[in-house]
């Protein structure tokens, strides 16, 4: 079984809708960002009360390394 990782994000702009959040990853050594499609190994959890959400990545591989932002 693979390991998992959870990345948290808090919205600072109260006008942003939690339903319109996006995640991006920039791989190590790359200048390009790629959009992460939720589903499969990528599971998003939303906490509307605290205006926060998280992305869990299951079955981590070396390919998952990089810098993530929301």
Automatic annotation (TrEMBL):
Name assigned to this protein: Antigen receptor
Gene encoding this polypeptide? Answer: NAR
Query: What are the residue boundaries of the Ig-like domain, all occurrences included?
Result: 1-70
InterPro entries in the cross-refs: Ig-like_dom (IPR007110), Ig-like_dom_sf (IPR036179), Ig-like_fold (IPR013783), Ig_V-set (IPR013106)
Do the record's keywords include Acyltransferase?
no
Q: Which domain of life is it from?
A: Eukaryota
Q: Which UniProt keywords apply?
A: Receptor
């Amino acid at each position: 079984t693979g390991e998992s990782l959870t990345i948290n994000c808090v919205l600072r702009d109260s006008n942003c809708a939690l339903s319109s959040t996006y995640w991006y990853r920039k791989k190590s050594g790359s200048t390009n960002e790629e959009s992460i499609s939720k589903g499969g190994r990528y599971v998003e959890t939303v906490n509307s009360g605290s205006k926060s959400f998280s992305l869990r990545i299951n079955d981590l591989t070396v390919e998952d390394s990089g810098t993530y932002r929301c």
